[in-house]
Design goal:
mainly alpha, 0% strand, elongated
Length: 138
Amino acid sequence: MQPLVYRIAADAMVMAHFAFVMFVVFGELAILVGILRNWQWVRGFVFRALHLAAIGVVVAEVLCGVMCPLTTWEQQLRAMGGRESYTGDFIPNLLHDWLFVSAEPWVFTLVYVLFGALVIATFFIAPPRWRRQSTKHE
């Protein structure tokens, strides 16, 4: 029974990894659209700080040559579950295939650093705000 628990945990790790990636990618897309549409929520300090921290961790990992801990944990859980390669259920398998694209390492480094630069640029274009500014006229 224990190998099944590890396989389920590995599948859950893939889903968490996918959610992290979607937060980074779609968070930036929402910020860019929000700038154009004047959505105030995309300037929320907590959202923007978490978003910057998320891509900052990714960029730091790739520049330091460190493998993502989520990937490492998933691989360890799969091994503990008796599987060397990925053969999970449909949804985790699909998410896994979307996450782990095959390319040269320099391609990922370039993409992550450029995406991180875009996130920093949006900090200057539309800086986050601590709270909503009052609309009262004084």
